[in-house]
Amino acid sequence: MYNLLIEVLYFAEFKDITKKETETFILSNNDLKELIDLLIKKYHPMQELLLDKKSDSLSNNISVIVNNKSIHGQDILSTSLNEGDKIALLLPVSGG
């Protein structure tokens, strides 16, 4: 495996936590789990948004978008990422 550069796009609460619109990360394991772990380590308040407290897996409320395509599946954290991927983590939109 080799290191790869990916870009994370922040929206809503994620943008509020990071105070950024985008950020670049270098991954060595090239999977979504590594990215989520890095995000939580750097921005601890994201843990409550990203992880399900009971199962310690990705919250069902999170939508993961990789290169403008929604990622689905039971083992979403093992999703492989590639050099230059753009990842967005989205929360449900509510309003009135």
Structure, described:
With 96 residues, this protein is α+β, with helices and mostly antiparallel strands. It has one domain (4-90): Beta-grasp domain (Ubiquitin-like (UB roll), Roll), CATH 3.10.20.30. The protein has 3 helices and 5 strands, in the order βαβααβββ. Strands 2-1-5-3-4 form a 5-stranded mixed β-sheet. A hairpin with a 2-residue loop joins β3 and β4. The chain is globular. The model has no long low-confidence stretch (mean pLDDT 91).
What is the count of distinct domains? 1
In the CATH hierarchy, the architecture is: Roll
| Residue share in β-strands | 25-35%
Anisotropy-based shape? globular
State Rg: 13 Å
Helix content: 10-25%
Low-confidence stretches are: none
Task: Summarize the model shown.
The protein is α+β, with helices and mostly antiparallel strands and 96 residues long.
Q: What keywords describe this structure?
A:
globular; 5-stranded mixed sheet; 96 residues; 3 helices; alpha+beta
Which SSEs are present, and which pair or pack?
Elements lengths: L3 E6 L2 H7 L3 E6 L4 H11 L3 H5 L12 E4 L2 E3 L14 E5 L6
